[in-house]
Every structure is written in structure tokens, then in C-alpha cells.
Design a protein that fits this description.
By secondary structure, this protein is an alpha/beta fold. It has a single domain, classed as Alpha-Beta Barrel (TIM Barrel). 46% of the residues lie in helices and 13% in strands.
Amino acid sequence: MKDPLNIGIKGAGTAFVTPFTDEGKVDVEACQRVMNDSLDAGINFMCVLGTTSEAPTLSFAEQKQVRDIAVKVNKGRRPILLGYGGNCTADIIDRMKHDDFEGIDALLIVSPYYNKPSQEGLYQHFRALAEASPRPIVLYNVPGRTGVNMTAETTLRLARDCHNIIGIKEASGKLDQVREIIEKRPAGFKVLSGDDKYSCEIMEMGGDGVISVVANAWPAETAEMTKAALSGDNKKAEQINKRMTPLYAPLFAEGNPSGVKAALSLKGRCKNNLRLPLVPVSPSLMKTIKGVLDEDNL
């Protein structure tokens, strides 16, 4: 049986941004504000230091700072899923031996990027990490960023062979692949959407929730939609999703988290600052995002 600790990585999780000050430092107050917004709105779990956090541009000290902010803000209220991983298996295992995981419930480990391993390479990589990990693992398949898709066969093989691999964040955009994982997974293995635009559809297939970018700026709507979908109220979930749909394309048109940081700045939750090589959205896209917010009162 998967998830023997019942850590609760299910439902709506926010993939948090990392707000920055005008001086380029981690904006502690804005981090706390955005995280508390999600927790107060009923988000089911926190996801920190994932793709949306701009983690590759954060120093190890800053990554620890963001992790500590999340633990302090959370105060044990929700499970915390920590973004982890890299493209050298041995280095990740070495980090696991020395990192502090106090307050962290599970690790979200992305497929190795740039190396483009085979399916057998992906299997051996994750199996080695599962044997070394001090926390349960949620796989993260995002071929648009890593350069290689982890197939349903490989995911299911890991789910069956590794007791502490408890789920997957699926951001392949391949709905047939997601459906196969859902239908053939071992009991308790969680399948979470990694794309906001597919979250309702994946939950209707039997998926277990979403790790959401949009929830940074619209946590209540994301939490309500996910709750409805998981309770079988597809009509209500689809109504909320329909209202949110105009946001999806513009928020990702010039990359993530550029779009959602633009929205957060318009809502007064953090400044519209990013770290190179990411830059704020263009003035024309900012105008489009503002128009959607104003038109739909979002």
C-alpha cells in the first residue's frame, strides 16, 4: 500500500513563486504573504522550490531560506512537498545525506534534465534516489523542460518497485499517458496534474489533484475547484474551471513564473521582479492579463 504515512499530498497544492525585492533579494514578507494566502484559502499542501520558484537561480543559501520560510509560515498546518533533484544521481544522493528535511513531508524530484537518459536510465536514477531518500518521493515528469518524457511504463514500474515513491506530478500534456498511469497504478499511488489547464480533466479521469501555478494568485478558486472535482461534483468544478480558463493561455504565454508574477503584482501580493534569464512579461501581455482580471473580476 502506497503512502503508508498518509502524508496528504492530494488535492490542491500551490507551486509557490519566490518573490524578490527591487534589490534582487528574496522578499521575505511577500513570500510569507503569498504562502499565507494559499493556506488561509484552503489549499491542501504546499510545494516549494519547484519550477515556479525559479530554483535554478537561487543559491543554496537562498533555497534554504525559502524552505525555512515555508516551514515557519506553515506551522504544521499542511504537508510540504519540497522540489528537489538534478541531473547527477550521485550528487543528489550526497545532498540527501546532508540536507535538513525538518518540516518537509515529501520530495518532488524532477527527471534529470539535459542528459536525456533512456527509460532504463530514468528507472535506475529514481530507484537509486528512492533507496537513499529520507522522505517519500513524488516523481515529476515535465518533458518540455527536461528534454525526455518518462513513459507510463517507467512510472508504473517505479510505483510498483519502490515503496516510498508515492505519486507523480504529470506535466507531459499526454492525457492518454496520464490515463494509463491512473488505470494501472498500484493502490494509493497519487497522480497529480502538473498543468492547470488539464487539472479538471485529469481529476475526472480519477487523478488526485493538481500542483498549481495559478493558485499563487487564485488559491481560493483553485482549492474550491479541486474539492468539487474530487468529491464528484464535476458540474461545479467545470463551472469554476470555465471561469478560470481565460487566464491559462496568457499566464504561460511568455513563460512561468513570468505570467503569474505579473498577475500577483497586479493584485498587490508581490513585486513583478524575476531573475535573469527570466524577465517580466511584455507590456502588451501585461495589458492582456490585466484585461482578463478586470473583465472577469478575478
